[in-house]
Amino acid sequence: MEVSDNSKGLILAVVSSAFIGASFILKKKGLKRAGNSGTRAGVGGYTYLLEPLWWAGMITMLVGEVANFVAYVFAPAVLVTPLGALSIIVSAVLAHFMLKERLQKLGILGCVSCIVGSVVIVIHAPQEQTPSSVEEIWKLATQPAFLVYAGITLSLVVALVLHFEPRYGQTNILIYLGICSLMGSLTVVSIKAIGVAIKLTLEGISQVAYPQTWLFVTVAVICVISQLNYLNKALDTFNTAIVSPIYYVMFTTLTIVASAIMFKDWSGQTISSIASEFCGLITILSGTILLHIAREQEVASAAGSISWYISIGSDDPIKNIDDDYFVTLRSSD
Description:
Elements: H1 5-37, H2 52-74, H3 77-80, H4 85-98, H5 105-123, H6 134-141, H7 144-168, H8 173-202, H9 211-237, H10 240-263, H11 271-303, E1 305-310, E2 325-330
Antiparallel strand pairs: 1-2
Helix pairs in contact: 1-2, 1-4, 2-8, 4-5, 4-10, 5-11, 7-8, 8-9, 8-10, 10-11
């Protein structure tokens, strides 16, 4: 029984999300260690480049991104991108146990909402219409509608980097993640073009000689480097349990929009299928709002508590740190 291209893309997207979700945790732990011995990434430091755990997270993310890259070759972005919801679940659960970033019941409900929304989108996703050459993709990329989208995206990125980041980057999570998501939407369409070029080349129709192929490669490299830089800043500055879902929702929304404009993913679909996909997206957004509320409650609860550190080990506090504990009193309103 032959497996359809959409099924191949679905399997690869699931594998990708699992690896990427785990990478958030490894990178977060590496950033914490690096911050204890040098300048934090959130304030412009790069000590994390010497931290093995951060590199382990990068390798894990690389594996996930490669799987994601291949998934885009077989399936449309409307199908592949929403499956990133699985990375939210993986990172939230691992953060709960490994980073002690507790996921409350409301947060769990938010994660479930993200999954439900993703399932709805996957069920109604259109079949892939693979372009026959890089030149064809270039024609799609230079159509007026996508040029307008790309122009607006780059303008917003410049405004966020030059004006908003210096003023609000350390207090507003949407600044860093906005840059990541906007650049990410351009990354996906570029990677889609590169993937198609590689696939055609392996089939004997070489796309290496086309300058458009290398232009897409250049755009993808620039966008990926920018994404990694600002994602590191977001992870180092804010709670992982909230960075993952917000990044996912913003990235998913913008990627679906960019792909729909450039590749016309919804062409030929019925109104009911498109409406169902929008409902799925709204469900995901609702889940993210629940995660926001859960995080705000956690912060408010922590703000109303006083903790004492009690050592019951020997005179060496480092050696016996596991035998020590905290006593916390919480104020009541």
